[in-house]
Amino acid sequence: MNSELLRILNLPLLQNEEEVAYGMHLDVDRLRTLSRNDSRHYKRYPIFKKSGGYRIIEQPTRELKAVQAWILRNILDKLHPSSNATAYIKGVNLLRNVIPHSANRYFLCLDIKDFFTSIPYFEVCKIFLLIGYSGKVSSFLSKLCTTRGHLPQGGVTSPALSNLTTTKLDRRIQGLCSRSNVTFTRYADDLTMASNHPEVLKGLIPTALKVLRSEGFEHNQNKLRLLGPNNSCKVTGLLKNSSEPKFGIGNKKKKRMRCIMHRLVIKGLVDETYPTESSIEGWLNFVKGVDRPSYDSMKQYWERLKLKPLVN
Question: What is the pLDDT of residue 244?
């Protein structure tokens, strides 16, 4: 154990499994049971994607969630991912992922296939070793954060660990982009590279994919996109096109939401995605953080609608 490094990072000094359990106020034998990757400690179920297919969610039990929450709060939240990582960071929203690209007109978007499950146990263990824990404690903490030998999508610690374990990937892609004056950000499994020169982005594709593979990842072939000013540039859910110089929710989304709001308030008809006033308010709160001009206009429209009587 590197006590000096742990003190510098303001992390708990944990020398063995007993001290880990003591810090969590749990019996060490019970904690060892939770670390054995028993399938009983996770509920597995599918979530269907809008684009087709599904992803498997592995949700830890309430007890294991509490254990992972302790690791997140006391260890992982005190560590910092690369500057290219923009997801799963407190106080940071989608704008952080697109603002670096605002001056560019062309965008190369790559999607990592099976992102969480592609991050193996030993990569998680490396993180705990690097910050100063012994091999035994690092292994113990890693087992509490993984299942079936990988990060579970649904684990409390998985988002933070996914950022930390991809630091080398971020550094390599950033180095590749820097040589070509290309901006790069990564929002979880979405990699975005931007430039004003489409041929430069095209030239990056083979090397970027090679870097991904060498780091243990595969890209989703159906989601590799090279976008430009002649089409709507959608980057992690936000749009930039010829009519909107900045990234935002886009005119199409605003028109659809106006229709949904009108149908709900004036005609009493609901949309399955936004069936209630509270769900629309939630959407407005999201827009407030990523596209303030659109929020202001949509909020005013919403408030005016609510003053009108319901048509029976």
Answer: 59
